[in-house]
Amino acid sequence: MIWEVLGDSSDQVYSPQDEPQVEVRDEPSKSENLNTEAIDRHMSTWDMFDRLVNHGCVDLSLQMDTKQDSAVIASGGGFGDIWMGKLYNGTKVAIKAWRSSMIEQCDYKKLKRATREIYYWSKMKHENIHQLMGVIIFKDNYLGMVSQWMENGNLSQYIRANPDVDRYQLCIQVASGLAYMHACNMVHGDLKSFNVLISSDGIAKLSDFGLSTMYEASIAFSETSITVGTTRWAAPELLDEESPKASKSSDVYALGMTMLEIFTGAVPYPQCQRDFSVMRMVQQKILPTRPEGRIHTGQRGNKIWELLMSCWNYEPNERPSAQEVVKL
User: Fold this and answer.
1) What is the average pLDDT value for the chain, to the nearest integer?
2) Do 130 and 206 contact (CB within 8 A), yes or no?
3) Active site (annotated) includes residue 26
4) Which intervals hold domain Protein kinase (predicted)?
């Protein structure tokens, strides 16, 4: 659909023959699958680290000071923090550090799933995926996942700083990254502009994906709703269920909301101040209003709006796949 819309753009960057081919590269084989190993009922941070390294994740301990005394916290979350650090060669990196206290509270099944999710992340290679460089034991106490630092920040920040950016191309890049993830049988689970990073050359890269196990665990231990902070992007079925589970179709719903963000520069349902108000709108099947000033009336704008509406279909099975969003 996006490619069809771009067909009448005189300044388009990609041509149809450049359409991203989504394929599974470096997909784990059965012999590599972490499911095949017995995992102790009590699994420590070091246990998780050793298993990841033994299965091929890069141990970055020789390339950086794992204590990172000069590192600064860039953001915090329910189960860990993101730090800005450096390799010995001066390369800036982001370190997502899982708190040991959080790991200790999880049962072995959750830790088994979480370890597998990190491993799959390490095997994914795509231009629109924020790649995992390796793992470390951070500050002697945390499981640290290291990736390249993105100077342009997240998608929301980038659009504000670059209002003339080609927003159609950003939509293609986000959809392409999600389509690749789904082809790898991975679900993002928290797609929104804040979880899409922008490289120095303006390429969108999906981040904070596939780590739903620890996110769900942090929710359970903090006794807060899974929808807090993500309600505006959450599919209706996630808001209605007592134990919501993200899926490819709920990812596509969030993709539509993220694409709307790209065009408007605002979060979905900006007129709603509270998540409760958003939930009520969704439950009443009230979709976002078309931003005429951003998605203009005309063949191109109409096709984009039809695409977004299909992503927001109340019935999960009626939504297009991420690959269809890219190709239609």
Assistant:
1) 81
2) yes
3) no
4) 68-328
